[in-house]
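Re: that backbone. Tokens:
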């Protein structure tokens, strides 16, 4: 180490095992201690491993097994829902955001934040994300939406998907397979601590942009947003998180902040999508800011393809 001095840190995890915790048929005392230590490490505090935590752990294992089996069985229980994106000026439906949903045969409907996180941790987000992308492209092609001028399909990508060096090639292959124009697709990525805008990630984004595929930065303005990213990553669109809209009628600070974000986006030649619009008063205030597009329950909640098929005429001029 060239004679340099480096600080060395030692971490200690402590678990207290409740004596009343019963051992199951497949349990061992060592196994319970290991689970308790894992819980202690993840929470950063002393943990008493009791019956409640033990049951949560076993349910978590069952969820992992169910998720893995459903993905292996041709995406069993998974579906793609669609929520419209509306042009602020005209009120015309301009695009659709594809949203993954999972109805587990063992647990029933599982929240997206739960099963997507699990898929990431288990290394399954790649096949799941690719399935969502292909399903959405195929569905919009079937509806003929790719032929409508200005239509845009938005598909969410996990930070782990963005780290895949084959990302751009996989997307372009699907577009060619379905004869779907790149100008009708937008890859939506969320800024988070897991998303590292490394050289190859930036190269993938530039490759997508060169093929007329839009790239949107979701949840802009939240804890992990970085103006440095806006300089290095030439995204086409910013999407604000619903927390900026929820209390905007009574909060002058949020109104001014939203104006600032819209001005920032436009100054960088980007468009801004305001998410989470649920009331007419929220809509009126957001329209005053100059936002380009609106998304939220005020227009429609996410719908399965069977329900969205009845509303396709809203995209036609």
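Recovered sequence:
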């Amino acid at each position: 180490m060239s004679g340099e001095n480096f600080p060395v840190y030692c971490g200690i995890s402590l678990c207290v095992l409740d004596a009343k915790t019963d051992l199951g048929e497949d349990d061992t005392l060592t196994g319970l201690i290991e689970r308790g230590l894992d819980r202690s490490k993840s929470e950063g505090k002393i943990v008493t491993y009791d019956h409640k935590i033990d049951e949560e752990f076993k349910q978590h294992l069952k969820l992992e097994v169910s998720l893995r089996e459903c993905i292996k069985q041709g995406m069993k229980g998974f579906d793609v829902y669609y929520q419209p994106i509306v042009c602020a000026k005209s009120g015309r439906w301009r695009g659709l955001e594809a949203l993954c949903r999972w109805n587990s045969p063992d647990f029933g409907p599982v929240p997206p934040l739960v099963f997507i996180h699990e898929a990431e941790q288990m290394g399954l987000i790649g096949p799941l994300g690719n399935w969502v992308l292909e399903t959405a492209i195929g569905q919009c092609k079937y509806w003929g939406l790719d032929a409508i001028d200005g239509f845009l399909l938005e598909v969410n990508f996990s930070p782990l998907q963005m780290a895949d060096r084959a990302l751009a090639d996989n997307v372009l292959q699907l577009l060619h397979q379905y004869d779907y124009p790149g100008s009708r697709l937008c890859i939506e990525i969320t800024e988070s601590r897991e998303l590292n805008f490394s050289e190859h990630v930036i190269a993938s984004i530039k490759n997508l942009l060169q093929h007329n595929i839009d790239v949107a930065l979701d949840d802009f303005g939240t804890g992990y947003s970085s103006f440095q990213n806006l300089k290095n990553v030439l995204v086409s669109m910013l999407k604000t998180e619903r927390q900026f809209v929820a209390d905007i009628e009574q909060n002058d600070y949020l109104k001014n902040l939203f104006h600032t974000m819209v001005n920032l986006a436009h100054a960088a030649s980007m468009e801004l999508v305001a998410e989470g619009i649920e009331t007419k008063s929220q809509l009126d205030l957001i329209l005053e800011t100059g936002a380009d597009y609106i998304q939220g329950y005020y227009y429609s909640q996410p719908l399965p393809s069977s329900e969205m098929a009845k509303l396709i005429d809203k995209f036609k001029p």
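The mean pLDDT is 86. Residues 125 and 174 are 17 Å apart (CA to CA).
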